[in-house]
Design a protein that fits this description.
Shape: elongated
Number of helices: 4
Helix content: 55-70%
Strand content: under 5%
C-alpha cells in the first residue's frame, strides 16, 4: 500500500523517521512551498518516477485477466499473490 503525505505539515515527521533509519542527524527545518500547487506537483513527480499508476477499470481488467490465466495453470492463492506483487 502506498502512502503520500497530505501536506507539508506531515513531512517533518517523515523526514525525521527516514533520517533515523539512515543514522542521519535530525532535520529541524523544512521549507513550506509558497505555491499551493507545489505539493501536488511534487507528489505527481514522485509517483511518476516510481512508476505508480492509478488502479482504474483498465488496470482492474488487466489484473483480473492475468489472475484467471495464472489460476488456470494451477497456481494457488499464495503463489498468485506473490507473483501479482512482483509482476504487476
Amino acid at each position: 500500500m502506498a502512502f503520500c503525505p497530505t501536506g507539508p505539515c506531515s513531512l517533518p515527521h517523515i523526514v525525521h523517521y527516514l533520517g533515523h533509519q539512515l543514522d542521519l542527524p535530525p532535520s529541524l527545518a523544512l521549507e513550506v512551498p509558497e505555491r499551493k500547487a507545489t505539493h501536488i506537483d511534487h507528489r505527481q513527480q514522485i509517483l511518476t518516477y516510481l512508476g505508480f499508476q492509478k488502479f482504474d477499470d483498465t488496470a482492474h481488467a488487466h489484473l483480473t485477466t492475468w489472475l484467471h490465466q495464472q489460476a488456470r495453470q494451477g497456481l494457488l492463492p499464495d503463489a498468485l499473490f506473490q507473483q501479482a506483487n512482483s509482476t504487476c
